[in-house]
Design brief:
EC number: 1.4.4.2
CATH superfamily of the largest domain: Type I PLP-dependent aspartate aminotransferase-like (Major domain)
Order of helices and strands: HHHHHEHEHEHEHEEEEEHEEHEEHHH
Number of helices: 14
Largest sheet: 7 strands, mixed
Structural class: alpha/beta
Pfam family, one: GDC-P
Strand content: 5-15%
CATH architecture of the largest domain: 3-Layer(aba) Sandwich
CATH class of the largest domain: Alpha Beta
Subunit structure: The glycine cleavage system is composed of four proteins: P, T, L and H. In this organism, the P 'protein' is a heterodimer of two subunits.
Bound molecules: pyridoxal-5'-phosphate
Cofactor: pyridoxal 5'-phosphate
Oligomer: single chain
Helix content: 25-40%
Strand order of the largest sheet: 1-7-6-5-4-2-3
GO molecular function, one term: glycine binding
Length: about 475
């Protein structure tokens, strides 16, 4: 495809204005600020601009184009209704400096969303400020840090994190000033309880857990883990980025967790990826309320909503204004339109779809932990090496079949990992087709492994040097 600059023809315009029928106004721009020459902008007809950007967009994969089973990322389909509501003028044209009495509807939405998230997580208080999951983690860990300092527990500086955890967990703990201690997984893929016991001591500040964990397995020992931590004056942090398997079924608050973050842009149906706006609210038990970032949205006895800045021990602000408001609108719309039963059903279908696909793929690929899974499962790609190919080759070949590869090489504890999360919004026909394509690619690996090694063969961009693309990114046109 040509660049838009290559399509440019000097003098071509995408607008036509009526002839000037008033005197041209002269603005006095200081000499040193005036350009010497016109900026180099592409000049095209409107239709060519529209086509250019639509063609570019069509080169990207998206949930609207095809299957997108990116494990841990919950690329579910996002109903258009959410977008329509977020685009209502009353929401779209709000200004964050407007007086509270003029934004009562927006405050009510935020207040109710806080209430919904409390109910869904089984927690007592919520802040909607954090802008993403990792940002929620950092906020939560700062809350824990402040709590420990305020309660003469400032010596507690160790945070225990399983070896299967998402990389943001250790990063957040370190940024909040803690030291990370790794706990091993056992051969079932769950936290090794004996190893955990040996690690807990008077310096243990908290454990950060993902449940179901990144292998898609529920930590059955969660109540034992919670007892162990609390007996040692340590807290439990819940990475709730993917609530997709347990929403409406199990509440982290009831399992003993003290702090929870949620990814509204995963579980609660906001389109994400490419660094778009996200939202990572955190929910805490009541003893941590006084440390939350301010403001939170409150309701007076009169029924009036307001921003509550009266949080004297607050860790401060973690984001400008009140969070990514449009993402909050989408999550609110999603929760209301699904209803209590709908959310439960989504969890059930996400789990059913994952297990269905896991069983189909297990006929010809190795499932790392064959136990019944929750919303995702992990394939161990070691056997691909027998054909001289890798998980990366397999993933690249999937692109040729019009589907996005799963998350690869994560979690780190599985060799040549492929982490598959089909989500609840895929039909049985799609899952059957996916299994058939995986089998076909495996057949290709056996007979013609070059096809995989050179893949993708059909896309405009072929195999990239991914390290180079990362380290020496060059998006400049000369
Ligand atoms: C996605 C994810 C995160 C981080 O969320 P971001 O919004 O990408 O910062 C944290 N933990 C888990 C398990 C995740 O899947």
């Amino acid at each position: 495809m040509k660049l838009i600059f290559e399509k440019s023809v000097s003098g071509r315009k995408s607008f036509s204005l009526p002839k000037l029928d008033v005197k041209e106004s002269q603005i006095d721009i200081p000499e040193h600020l005036v350009r010497n020459e016109a900026p180099n902008l592409p000049e095209l007809y409107e239709v060519d601009i529209v086509r250019h950007y639509n063609q570019l967009a069509s080169l990207n994969h998206s949930v609207d184009r095809g299957f997108y089973p990116l494990g841990s990322c919950t690329m579910k389909y996002n109903p258009f209704l959410n977008e329509e509501v977020a685009a209502l003028n009353g929401f779209k044209y709000l200004h964050p400096y407007q007086e509270e009495r003029t934004v009562q509807g927006a405050l009510e939405l935020m207040y109710e969303l806080q209430e919904f998230l409390k109910e869904i997580t089984g927690m007592d208080h919520v802040t909607l400020q954090p802008a993403a999951g990792a940002h929620g983690e950092l906020t939560g860990m700062l809350v824990i840090k402040k709590y420990l300092q305020e309660n003469n527990l400032g010596h507690k500086n160790e945070v225990i994190i399983p070896d299967s955890a998402h990389g943001t967990n250790p990063a957040s703990a370190v940024m909040a000033g803690f030291e990370v201690i790794k706990v091993n997984s056992n051969n079932e893929g769950r936290v090794d309880l004996d190893h955990l016991k040996s690690l807990v001591n008077e310096n243990t500040a908290a454990i950060m857990l993902t449940n179901p964990n990144t292998l898609g397995l529920f930590e059955k020992d969660i109540l034992k883990i919670s007892d162990l931590m609390h007996k040692n004056n340590a807290l439990l942090y819940y990475d709730g980025a993917n609530l997709n398997a347990i929403m409406g079924k199990v509440r982290p608050g009831d399992n003993g967790f003290d702090v929870v973050h949620l990814n509204l842009h995963k579980t609660f149906s906001t389109p994400h990826g490419m660094g778009g706006p996200g939202s990572g609210p955190i929910a805490v038990k009541s003893f941590l309320k006084e440390y939350l970032p301010k403001p939170v949205v409150g309701m007076k006895e009169s029924g009036e909503y307001y921003f509550d800045y009266d949080i004297p021990k607050s860790i401060g602000k973690v984001r400008s204004f009140y969070g990514n408001f449009s993402v909050l609108v989408k999550a609110y719309t999603y929760i209301l339109s699904m209803g209590k039963e709908g959310l439960k059903k989504a969890s059930e279908l996400a789990t059913l779809n994952a297990n269905y696909l896991k069983e189909k793929l297990s006929k010809f690929l190795d499932v790392a932990y064959p136990d019944v899974c929750k919303h995702e499962f992990v394939i161990k790609g070691t056997s691909l090496k027998d054909y001289g190919v890798s998980t990366l080759d397999f993933a690249k070949r999937l692109l040729d079949y019009g589907m996005h590869p799963p998350t690869v090489y994560f979690p780190l504890i599985v060799d040549e990992a492929m982490m598959i999360e089909p989500t609840e919004t895929e039909s049985k026909e799609t899952l059957d087709e996916v299994a058939a394509i995986y089998e076909k690619i495996l057949e290709e690996a056996r007979k013609d492994s070059d096809k995989l090694k050179k893949a993708p063969l059909t896309l405009p961009i072929k195999r990239l040097d991914e390290v180079k693309a990362n380290k020496e990114l060059n998006v400049k046109f000369d």
